[in-house]
Amino acid sequence: MNINMHILLDELRELNPKSYLNDSIDLTIRSMAGFDKTSDGFLTDTLYLATTTALTAWEGKLQDVNLIAVGSFELDFAQRNRCNIICFDDSLSPVEIAGHIFRIQKKYDDWNNALLSALIAKKPTKHLFAIALGEIHNPMMLLGPLNTLILAAGDIPASCTDTLWRELLNEGYLSYEHPLYSELLKMAEKKPSEQPFIVKFPMHDYTYLIANLFQSGKRCGALHLIEVNQPFSLGQITLVAHFRSILEQAIKTIPDLQILSSNANGFVYQLLNHIYVKESIIINSLQAKGWKVFDEFLCLNLMQNKMQRDDTLLNIIVQELTRVFPAAIILNYKDGVVMILRHADFPFDREDLQARLASFVKKFFLTIGVSSVFYDFKNLKRHYDECSLAIKYGLAQDPTLALHFFDDHVFRHLSRFIFVENGKNQFIHTKVELLHHYDLKNNTELVKTLLTYFQFGQSKSLAAEKMHLHRNTLTYRLNSINNLVGIDCSSRNLQEEEIFHIMLSCKFLEYIP
């Protein structure tokens, strides 16, 4: 990382220098040299070490030159020559000052290398911010383009009651009704690509530093800092600008920052991350595709084999899926690919879907979870989670299968939810539970027989046909059930509520041992 004069001034303040610097953060230093009286000219990206006495011979020829000087500092000289100078008294030698500068350069090289290493390793965004806070000394927030909170880093003092940050921390987004919402948008429009800028809002006690983030020339979010620990010096602003450039690179590679991607599916990333998106944004974004919020949808999550995970391969999968499902919304998300189909574009026929996905499963070693059909795009996150559950339950049931439908595991999921919340004994019909224990002990199928009998309207013929049994065998089993636990299947006086309880208990016991 190339430091600049403002960073140097911040780091050297303990040595009580005097200075005169312009207010640009572009005073970058790429090399250091001793001041040569015989030189024909000076480079603006080189830092020159000199005595103030030697500088007098170059009066009028030092514009924009970066200088570290030892000796008597004259403000008039710096102003006349419009140079950038940090000056120390004679108690320090140029060699000692050079030593300080080399240590400062190493410090920021190490900081930058840590950021780049985290970027290359695709570490989580929190890891990047933890490194950044090593040198950026005020709390930071990363906001999306809709002023939604992506991440907060650094400690906010309890005394900070500022409503802007408190609302973001508590609610996760800045509402459209907030008095500062339009002000923030105006700030972004006024300074779309410039250096980070300082803002002081009326009626607010704290000063903010805002650095807009861009992708493909479009603003996709912003860094917000609040001045609670250290003043916003130009050195700190330089560091924030550098960190912003790191984040703009990270958006392209780190999965949990793809929410800031400038592509048209940015709102989908927000929904998948359970971040508030105003309904009008969803409506407008879907309308651009010719879709409506309340169409009929299906969500698929296509996951690579853990041993085969490859980001380049994921991009290839997205391209191939786009050819087969041209009307779908398809995007990289986390370690897989999410695809959203609309019924009007693709009939939800299971066999057809399996046939179209078969080549992807074989070619890319994919495991695919398919949600239930849903009718409100705002609920996308819930149905994406169904895909993950379908994969989880499906692999547990048959690890050889690659395509798993949540609809096939609804009872399994519901039974686990009920029993985790309340315990099995509070829900399962006591007589069915006794019958279940008997089956386990004697290797019989009395619970299955009971469920099938009621599923077919207490018809012995239909139930026997379904189970591939002789009618007499079924009758024998029903009599055994009555003798063992007292459920008289031949009685037409069983209450509807009890039959329902018996059937649910039988069904849940298929999934819960």
TrEMBL record:
Q: Which Pfam families match?
A: GGDEF_2, HTH_30
| Ranges of residues in domain PucR C-terminal helix-turn-helix | 446-490
Tell me where in this chain the CdaR GGDEF-like domain is found. Answer: 286-392
Checking Gene3D superfamilies in the record gives: PucR C-terminal helix-turn-helix domain
InterPro entries noted in UniProt:
CdaR-like_regulators, CdaR_GGDEF, PucR_C-HTH_dom, PucR_C-HTH_sf
Per its UniProt entry, which superkingdom is the organism in? Bacteria
Family per UniProt?
Answer: Belongs to the CdaR family.
User: Which PANTHER family does the record match to this protein?
Assistant: CARBOHYDRATE DIACID REGULATOR
The name this protein goes by in its record? Transcriptional regulator, CdaR family
